[in-house]
């Protein structure tokens, strides 16, 4: 018997889970390291389970047997269907698993299952819209470094491009460049080592430096203004009619508001929930569908 539901928001920088009883009573939350599928199936499940254990602990509960738990996950990397299939196949024993992109669980959470759009800005970026007829559309989400415009790693990559030019003498530096240089090793050889080992998470950590210097450094500000322009392009591709509300989500959603074009700001609404809430909604829908299918099978089996 399923007693607990877990909603998971898993990305390239970290994992957040929300726990509730099957009757809808809210319990605790937990967090852990990255669970984006790019980091590997085993690592993703490890982060999810670590965050879930913390949520049970925060609720004053022992971790129950997995067969008493149903879990809904929105994970980065699910667009790779082979990764997604491998992740579900590696289910360590949960009673039910519903897996979707983190973009879809974000739109479910932000608009409480109603039509609307989101642009999620975290380590990466992606836009998703849920239309009134139930159809969906995704924009972006191609992954770093090929895509994920306006995401933290994309912003960090541009900061790295700038310091390369400063170190070479191709561009003038300042306090912004000096801070980024120090964060990546302090001198050319150390920066080369940093680059050889850097993941999208490492690049994303540099975004906070860009934000800190945007008011005083022209290069930092130009990076964020270009990020704002990229967000506007995602919004236009999602809903050219401009009729549905758009919620900015993710850790960079609020910080980047100041760099968005004014015409886009008029369409922005506050999200009513997050991706973890969307994960809970996802698993609830999945369990309802399972129950409906069981009832249909019972009806068909009756003489």
Short précis:
Helix content is 45%, strand content 19%. The protein has 11 helices and 10 strands. The chain has helices spanning 41-58, 81-89, 102-110, 152-168, 175-183, 188-197, 200-205, 207-213, 218-238, 262-265, 275-301, and strands at 4-10, 15-21, 26-32, 69-75, 96-101, 116-121, 125-130, 136-140, 246-249, 268-269.
Please give the largest β-sheet: 5 strands, mixed
Radius of gyration: 21 Å
Measure the end-to-end span. Answer: 28 Å
Instruction: Say how many strands there are.
Output: 10
Number of H/I helices: 11
Name the beta content range.
15-25%
Molecular shape? globular
Could you give the order of strands across the largest sheet? 3-2-1-4-5
Helical coverage, percent range:
40-55%
What low-confidence regions span 5 or more consecutive residues with pLDDT below 50?
Answer: none
The structural class is alpha/beta
SSE run? EEEHEHEHEEEHHHHHHEHEH
The average pLDDT is 93
Plain-language structure description:
With 303 residues, this protein is of the alpha/beta class. It is 45% helix and 19% strand. It contains eleven helices and ten strands. It has helices at 41-58, 81-89, 102-110, 152-168, 175-183, 188-197, 200-205, 207-213, 218-238, 262-265, 275-301; strands at 4-10, 15-21, 26-32, 69-75, 96-101, 116-121, 125-130, 136-140, 246-249, 268-269. The chain has a five-stranded mixed beta sheet with strand order 3-2-1-4-5. Helix 4 (152-168) runs antiparallel to helix 9 (218-238). The longest helix is centred in the C-terminal third of the chain and has 27 residues, at 275-301. It is globular and about 85 Å long. The two termini are 28 Å apart. The mean pLDDT is 93.
């Amino acid at each position: 018997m399923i007693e607990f539901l877990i909603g998971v928001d898993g990305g390239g920088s970290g994992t957040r889970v929300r726990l509730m009883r099957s009757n809808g009573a809210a319990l605790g939350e937990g967090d852990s390291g990255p669970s984006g599928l790019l980091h590997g199936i085993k690592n993703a499940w490890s982060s999810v389970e670590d965050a879930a254990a913390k949520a049970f602990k925060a609720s004053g509960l022992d971790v129950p047997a997995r067969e008493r738990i149903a879990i809904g996950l929105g994970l980065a990397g699910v667009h790779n269907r082979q990764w997604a299939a491998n992740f579900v196949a590696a289910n360590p024993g949960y009673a039910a698993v519903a897996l979707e992109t983190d973009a879809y669980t974000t739109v479910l959470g932000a608009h409480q299952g109603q039509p609307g759009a989101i642009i999620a800005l975290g380590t990466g970026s992606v836009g998703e819209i849920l239309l009134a007829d139930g159809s969906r559309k995704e924009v972006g989400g191609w992954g770093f470094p090929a895509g994920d415009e306006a995401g933290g790693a994309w912003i960090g990559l541009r900061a790295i491009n700038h310091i390369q030019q400063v170190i070479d003498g191709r561009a003038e530096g300042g306090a912004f460049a000096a801070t980024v240089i120090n964060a990546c090793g302090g001198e050319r050889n150390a920066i080369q080592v940093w680059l050889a080992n850097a993941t999208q998470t490492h690049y994303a950590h540099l975004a906070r430096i860009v934000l800190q210097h945007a008011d005083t450094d022209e290069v930092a500000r130009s990076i964020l203004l270009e990020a704002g322009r990229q967000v506007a392009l995602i919004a236009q591709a999602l809903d050219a009619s401009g009729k549905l509300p758009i919620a900015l989500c993710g850790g960079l959603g609020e910080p980047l508001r100041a760099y968005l074009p004014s015409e886009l700001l008029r369409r922005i609404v506050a999200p009513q929930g997050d991706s973890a809430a969307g994960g809970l909604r996802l698993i609830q829908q999945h369990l309802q569908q399972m129950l409906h299918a069981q009832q249909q099978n019972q009806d068909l089996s009756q003489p």
